[in-house]
Amino acid sequence: MQEMLTCMWRKRVLFYASFSILVWALFTPFFVVYGDTVSELRDKIAERNTAIADLEKEIADYQKQIETTGSEAKTLQSTIRGIDLEQKKLSAEIRLTENKISAVNLRLEELADAIDVKENRIGESRNALAETIRSLADSEKKTLVETMLSGASLSTVWGAVDDLERFQRGVRSDLQKTKKLKAELEDTQTETRVNRIKLVSLRSDLSDKNLLLAQNKKAKSTLLATTKSKEAEYRKILAQKIAKRNAFEQELLKFESELRFVIDPSRIPTSGSGVLKWPLDAVKITQEFGDTAFSKSGAYAGKGHNGVDFRAPNGTPIKASLSGTVKGTGNTDAVCPGASYGKWVLIEHSNGLSTLYAHFSLVKVSEGQSVSTGEVLGYAGETGYATGPHLHFTVYATQGVKVMQRKSAVCGGTYTMPIADLKAYLDPMKYL
Hints:
alpha+beta; Glutathione S-transferase Yfyf (Class Pi), Chain A, domain 2; Glucose Permease (Domain IIA); two-stranded antiparallel ribbon; 12 strands; 57% helix; elongated; disordered N terminus
């Protein structure tokens, strides 16, 4: 009897020792290899984050210089200096985006390693547990019965039962650890999906910034060629641009004054409702709505300003103030350079309002497209009539605005743009 029990305990001890060695052999390589990989990847990610922080400071410095230049008297020299600063800012933004792409790629690599490790640990843990249970059943099923029938002492029997219970608790604990690993794996996979989406967005942003930089360089070359690098020529061109703008505004005003669209006030949100979000992350109003001092000085044909202007350096993302449908996009410069909105986007919202965004350097949406609140529509610029890069933002009663084609005597061609009954123009500040 004693010999049989001794054999049983020897088998149990050997089994536990073998199981411990198996677990150590299975998991130790993962800890070592993964630990080294994580350390290297995290060092690289830290380097990228440092570079990102430095570039953000550089971009902020360029932005301050651009604002200072923009507040100076409009001369050829100040305009060229502003363009040069915008080029430097765009170049820094390109490097910033490249570093962000690199950081996301490194993080994806780190997450991929983490997923492999967790999947392997889960698989090995399940296999080891299954094998352990089978081995224990084979080695102890018969022995426990024999022990009970052999007339062994009660303490010996209960000792064997107690050992089994302890093992079952260990199995339950290991299963809980496996479940925790599974939850961590799912979290890692979710973060991976989010980072892949971010990577696509960053690559699109990088492409956009490179395009904007090319446009910026072309604008500088065109300006220098047109003015022949002479201040007098620049002044002459500027005066012609203002004259054309005023003539176009008078032409448009006459037509809009004759429109008689039916507008039901009950279909418009109440003033102060705050239904619209700011179209920019950083808000600085440079020209308000209505009969401002600027408009009365002769700008806008001496009539009120039909929207709000926001400071927005070249390349600033312009965002939808509310979800809706893009009713139209266009570029008035194609027919009437420097006289109107330049590149524009009109969005119709479901609450009876429509919003116009103008003077884009690059438009990212198209007619018929559905957009969400905060979605990037394009990037700020100074197309159309603009003495500097900015965003012109107009709010309409939807019933009173239409995208129309109009033949212009001033421009000598047919332009396409939003045209509204004067009653349809609303003060944007009452809805932001």
